[in-house]
Specification:
Elements: H1 5-20, H2 66-85, E1 91-100, E2 103-111, E3 117-120
Antiparallel strand pairs: 1-2, 2-3
Length: about 130
C-alpha cells in the first residue's frame, strides 16, 4: 500500500497543528497563572464541543516525571481523537520517549482505513514546552 504524497502531507500537517496549537485549559486543570489560553475560534464551534489543539502547553513548567510523560500521551491522544471520530484513520498510537531529564519526544503512528501505517515523528516535539 502507498500513501499519496498529498495525503501524507495533509495528515502530518493536521497532527502537528492538533498537537502544537494551544487548546483552552479545562476548568479543573491546574494552572501556574490565571491564563487559560486557547484558540478564540473554539468559542464559536460549528460542532458542539469541537476544539482545536492540545493541552500539552500545560506541561511547560512541570518537572519531567513518569506522570508528566503519561499526561503528555493523554493530551496528545485527546488532541488527535478527531482523526478517529471523523474517519481519517482507524487507530492512533502515541509513543513517548524520555531522552533525559528535560526532553520527551512524542511520536504518532496513524493506522489508516486500508491498514497502512503513517509514522509522524516531529523533531524537537518537546521543546514547545520550554518556548514560554
Amino acid at each position: 500500500m502507498f500513501i499519496s504524497q498529498n495525503l501524507h502531507a495533509a495528515l502530518t500537517r493536521s497532527v502537528l497543528i492538533s498537537l502544537f496549537t494551544w487548546r483552552r485549559a479545562a476548568d479543573d486543570d491546574a494552572l501556574d497563572d490565571e491564563e487559560r489560553f486557547g484558540w478564540w475560534g473554539d468559542s464559536f464551534p460549528t460542532i458542539a464541543d469541537d476544539r482545536i489543539g492540545s493541552r500539552l502547553w500545560l506541561l511547560r513548567r512541570v518537572k519531567l516525571t513518569r506522570q508528566t510523560q503519561m499526561d503528555a500521551e493523554f493530551y496528545a491522544r485527546e488532541a488527535l481523537q478527531w482523526l478517529l471520530d471523523d474517519g481519517h484513520c482507524r487507530a492512533i498510537d502515541i509513543i513517548s520517549e524520555r531522552l533525559d531529564a528535560q526532553r520527551l519526544n512524542l511520536r504518532t503512528v496513524l493506522t489508516l482505513a486500508d491498514g497502512e501505517r503513517l509514522d509522524i515523528n516531529p523533531d524537537n516535539s518537546w521543546q514547545v514546552i520550554y518556548a514560554v
